[in-house]
């Protein structure tokens, strides 16, 4: 369910929307998309994160039509900048419903990676997913406009 003012977020989204999340980790995946695929990847990441017993890294995730920018919340240090064109899938996990995950292609080695993040609420995981979906849509519209223009 989207907030009523969702349509107003297009402007905000062009600037980039910020989410405060906890980074759970990454695992390699075989395919660029798929619900079962991402669910299995999230399950592996959650298990690994729990087993390590380490505190999760607090991160700021900025979503815009350019892609996703990850920064460390404490130091504000850039962790990763992922182009929207390298992201093939994003989801709010069904079982771990506070988990937002995306699959993207690594720029250096072309590996497909699933990255998972812990949100404070289930609604937030859904919001991040929807925001990334919106960003895709806008990026596509901008790309089309550029192509025609």
TrEMBL record:
Pfam families: PID (PF00640). Keywords: Cholesterol metabolism, Cytoplasm, Endocytosis, Lipid metabolism, Lipoprotein, Receptor, Steroid metabolism, Sterol metabolism. One of its GO terms (cellular component) is early endosome. GO terms for biological process: cholesterol metabolic process; endocytosis. It comes from the Eukaryota. InterPro entries: Adapter_Engulfment-Domain (IPR051133), PH-like_dom_sf (IPR011993), PTB/PI_dom (IPR006020). It is found in: Cytoplasm. Residues 19-141 form the PID domain. This is Low density lipoprotein receptor adapter protein 1.
């Amino acid at each position: 369910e989207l907030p009523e003012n969702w349509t107003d977020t297009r402007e905000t989204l062009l600037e980039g929307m910020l989410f405060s999340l906890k980074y759970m980790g990454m695992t390699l995946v075989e395919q660029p998309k798929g619900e079962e695929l991402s669910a299995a990847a999230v399950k592996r990441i959650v298990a690994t994160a729990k087993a390590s017993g380490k505190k999760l890294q607090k991160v700021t995730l900025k979503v815009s039509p350019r892609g996703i920018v990850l920064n460390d919340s404490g130091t504000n240090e850039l962790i990763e900048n992922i182009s929207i064109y390298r992201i093939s899938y994003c989801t709010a996990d069904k079982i771990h419903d506070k988990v937002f995950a995306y699959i993207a292609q690594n720029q250096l080695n072309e590996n497909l990676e699933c990255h998972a993040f812990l949100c404070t609420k289930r609604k937030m995981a859904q919001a991040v997913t929807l925001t990334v979906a919106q960003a895709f849509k806008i990026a596509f519209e901008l790309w089309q406009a550029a192509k025609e223009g």
